[in-house]
UniProtKB/TrEMBL annotation:
One of its GO terms (molecular function) is transmembrane transporter activity. Its main location: membrane. This is Amino acid permease. The lineage of its organism: Archaea, Methanobacteriati, Methanobacteriota, Stenosarchaea group, Halobacteria. It comes from Halobellus salinus. It is found in: Cell membrane. InterPro entries: AA/rel_permease1 (IPR002293), APC_superfamily (IPR050367). Coiled coil: none annotated. Pfam families: AA_permease_2. It is a multi-pass membrane protein. The keyword Ribosomal protein does not apply. It comes from the Archaea. Keywords: Cell membrane, Membrane, Transmembrane, Transmembrane helix. The chain crosses the membrane at residues 12-36, 42-60, 81-100, 112-140, 152-172, 184-202, 223-244, 270-297, 328-347, 409-428.
Length: 460
């Protein structure tokens, strides 16, 4: 129905800025010190390793996005490849993880906000709530408006980080890079598992594919272009942080002797004194707000797509007649976002959600294999991921390898998300859909049976 369609208003540049905006928050402004505590200066290599593990999923999603340029992203691809049970788990889990990540961004900016604003510690949560409410309003008011604001903010942040990195070259202390690896290969792998979430935003732009102009051309370019830009930017910025900051400050400069929550400001203080701290702190607040905006924009499309497929209540697929946005899905996402900020220790729980992100990135590679092997006539991507199937096998196994380095509690958290999502499917969605996935087409073919005719890539 035309009334249920979203407006294709996003060109290549704002689409790429949504992807970069989803990556340019905590991965630069918070996580470098946490990774440094686990691997020392080799945290730089950890960011490169994490990028290599993410790349297969980025290539896989770029292909599937051109075959299915609809809202839903991760949910849509896994659902159509592996069936509605796995789709429900992926959709709810990815939505849950992204909302946590957005909450983490808004709460995490408090550490930077206190460096320059005359606020008491108790004011951080109210400010985060106000910014969260603003993000929700922007997303209800229109994807084009939200995308334009996102593009402006991200552009300014990237330029600011470029200036920071270039200037750091004149003040780096090369002695701080030796020894390069303080905990050997295991330290690098463990650090890579923790900074992996820095790249999670690279494929989230696929969830707004239905609102992208010329998706066959713009989606692969936005996904892979933003991935390349952010890998270079991460390596450059983290190198600057390591070379500028006192090692003890990075390791113990946070609350209660934990890793510093403001590593960028630590380095800026060494480079430009008080002005540098002020400059980077303002940039951090803007960037983390941008990250939250990109998170709400993309995560709200998961309940929209699942509602269209009868896996969640129909009201979540309603499109606002004036703004052409999924109003109810945005409001639900925003309500959970604000509740998390107000009542939950988001920083700790965000670590649990990151384990599910790694799991989803592994499974998305399996989804592409299912589509290719099923040879479904309706699956006609305009972009094909190179190196199939070796790239996908590497991405799947490497992701599982990183997952083992997350620790017991995050893995149990991912298991909890899987169990809860499976329960929602059993109670609500199972009796409302008879859709099959590409994997069933493969199984029918191996048994010499005729497929049931359902098109796994067509939305209900």
């Amino acid at each position: 129905m035309v009334g249920d369609d979203l407006d294709r208003s996003l060109g290549l540049y704002p689409t790429m800025m949504i992807s970069i905006g989803a990556m340019i928050g905590s991965g630069i402004f918070v996580l470098p010190a946490l990774g440094y505590k686990k691997a020392g200066p080799a945290v730089i290599a950890a960011y490169v390793l994490a990028a290599l593990v993410v790349l297969p999923a980025a290539l896989s999603k770029a292909e599937m996005a051109t075959a299915m340029p609809e809202s839903g992203g991760t949910y849509l691809y896994i659902d159509r490849a592996l069936g509605p049970l796995f789709g429900t788990i992926a959709g709810i889990g990815a939505w849950f993880s992204l909302v946590f990540k957005s909450s983490f961004a808004l709460v995490g900016l408090g550490a930077y906000l206190l460096l320059f604003a005359p606020l008491a510690q108790g004011a951080v949560v109210p400010v985060a709530l106000a910014l969260g409410a603003l993000v929700v309003v922007l997303n209800v008011s229109g994807t084009k408006l939200s995308g334009q604001i996102q593009a402006i903010i991200v552009t300014l942040v990237v330029i600011s980080l470029g200036v920071y990195t270039v200037n750091s070259g004149f003040a780096l202390d090369t002695a701080r890079f030796a020894p390069f690896s303080t905990d050997g290969r295991i330290g690098v792998v463990t650090a890579a598992a923790f900074v992996f979430v820095s790249y999670a935003g690279v494929t989230k732009v696929a969830s707004v594919a239905e609102e992208v102009k010329d998706p066959g051309r713009n989606l692969p370019r936005a996904i892979l272009g933003s991935m390349a830009i952010m890998t270079v930017l991460y390596v450059a910025v983290v190198s600057a942080v390591v070379g500028l900051s006192d090692p003890d400050t990075l390791k113990t400069g946070g609350p209660g002797g934990t890793a510093s929550l403001t590593p960028m400001a630590d380095g800026a203080g060494a480079l430009l004194g008080g002005f540098g701290v002020l400059f980077i702190s303002v940039v951090a607040v803007v960037a983390l707000t941008s990250m939250a905006n990109a998170g709400v924009l993309s995560s709200s499309r998961f309940p929209l797509a699942m509602s269209r497929d009868n896996l969640l209540p129909p009201g979540l697929s309603r499109i606002d007649a004036r703004f052409r946005t999924p109003r109810n899905a945005v409001l639900l996402t925003g309500a959970v976002l604000l509740l998390l900020i107000a009542f939950v220790p988001v920083i700790e729980l965000a670590k649990l959600a990151s384990a599910f992100q790694i799991l989803v990135f592994s499974v998305i590679n399996a989804a592409l294999v299912a589509f290719r092997e099923a040879d479904i006539p309706s699956y006609t991507p305009e972009f094909e991921a190179p190196g199939y199937p070796y790239v996908q096998v590497f991405g799947f196994l490497a992701g599982l390898g990183l997952l083992t380095q997350m620790g017991t509690l995050p893995i149990l958290g991912a298991a909890g998300i899987i169990a809860g999502s499976g329960l929602i499917y059993a109670v609500y969605g199972r009796h409302r859909t008879d859709r099959t996935g590409a994997i069933d087409t493969i199984l029918h073919g191996r048994r010499g049976e005729t497929d049931d005719g359902l098109a796994p890539t067509d939305p209900e």
